[in-house]
Amino acid sequence: MRRITVLGVGCLCALGAYAADVDTISVDGGALSGSIENGINIYKGIPYAAPPVGDLRWKAPQPVADWDGVRDCTKYSDDCPHPSYPEGSLYARDPHPQSEDCLYLNVWSTAKQDEKLPVMVWIHGGGFTRGAGSNSAYDGSALAKKGIVLVTINYRLGVYGFFAHPELTAESENKSSGNYGALDMIAALEWVQRNIDEFGGDADRVTIFGESAGSWAVNVLVASPLAKGLFHRAIGQSGGSFGSMTQLAGSDGDSVSAEENGIAFANAAGADSLADMRGLSSDRLLELFTSDPEGRKFRSRPNVDGYFLPTSVYDTFAAGKHNDVPAILGSNRDERAAFMAPGMLPKTVEAYEKQMEENYGDDFAAFAKVYPVDDVDGIRDAVIHSGSDSTFGLSMRTWARMMANGDSSAYLYYFTRVPQIPNKEFYGAFHAAEILYAFDNLGTRDRVYDDVDHKLADTMSSYWANFAKTGDPNGDGLAEWTPYTVETECYMELGDEPAQGQGLRKAQLDFHEKRAQRDR
Predict the structure, then answer these.
(1) Euclidean distance between CA atoms 439 and 418, whole angstroms
(2) Which residue segments constitute the domains of the chain, with CATH numbers given?
(3) CA angle, 350 as apex, 349 and 354 as ends, to 5°?
(4) pLDDT at 251
(5) Is the pLDDT of residue 5 over 60?
(6) Which residues are catalytic?
(7) CA distance 125 to 131
(8) End-to-end CA, the chain
(9) In degrees rounded to 5, what are phi and psi of residue 33?
(10) Average pLDDT score over the chain
């Protein structure tokens, strides 16, 4: 880390608990200063691209404009506009300022001068419609203390990041539209390559990791030729895109293309042209996206555009054309619980069987063999585990298996620790429960954690940090984690006592895989 200037003692009153010895460094655009807390250099709100506003709305990210003087990077930037989670949601957070001027990132580092530490770049989840790198769950302090330069990023969400339209495609030199949020991620990774050495990071050891939509993002980045060389390892937590994917243009059976989806949204907005769409206020776009019947149908996801994604993720992996990097991949036992409420469960075995017959049709008999229910007490596990397996567990095992087309290792995990939250018997090891453990950030939530939780958080974050350093999660004092192969099917259960197993939920995942292959 290269130090240029030092803030004086007179700044202590403004910085509060932060130390006075703060690095000022040079990056794309100019000089910036951050703060130090508990020995960690922290820089928040660093611009990695120009604000995507005005004529730059729905264009690929553009270079940062130079600024004069030293930019204060002690506060998070605005989030991309997005709807709030409903009150009572497991994912609700305090309001944070929002703006289309949102393409910023944050860095935590303990690197000394001229030191080069491995880098981890976190891509947040939220269905590509919510979230931000400023979420306290993603604070990089604990991982920084384990020798990581930690980066979190914002990217464009919802209609701001994934609006495709024939006029946008026509004006693009790449004849592509709708993947702006994904292109933001590329721009952030390019920024890391050019600038992370200033923070003591090693641009040749970059790990991308994310959860849910963040994991889908990692998945499509591993598949995208535009991301080649921008990262060297990948961690996917509960999200892969190995099913059918939205095409940029043209209809395929009953599916709707990204451009058709965009046209429908523009019609709902009453816009006759792209100029009209760019003329809409940000508040109006968010209002349409959140409340309008057509807006609710808008699909926020990357599309196969021939540029960012030449083919679907599945076809790219099947052809062995993905970016061949080591990966940690996994899911949680009770993922689906977070998307339900206890009252949504069938009340009787008969009602359960009727619902499952409607869902699985001719496959119901085979389903019942791998998800047997003898009485009412078994309904919760069957509903939640089947949904978790089909949506998350299968995609992560598929990802691990498809890496056999390359030379890199895949490490599969299964998170089963149940946090101490209200109604934990229902929610279990819910979707995103593992994030606080991976970051060793249990203290950022108002929950009760015991020694088992803290030990697991230390173990899991150590696996993640070791992997970022060497491409192998193993290390002193940790249970041995053997790479996954189709033959051995080894995986690590991250639960009350981490332990290795084989054939993770094999009968259940094989059932869902047969259905996926038939539908593909």
Answers:
(1) 17
(2) 9-318 (3.40.50.1820), 344-519 (3.40.50.1820)
(3) 115
(4) 63
(5) no
(6) 212, 335, 431
(7) 6
(8) 49
(9) -130, 150
(10) 93
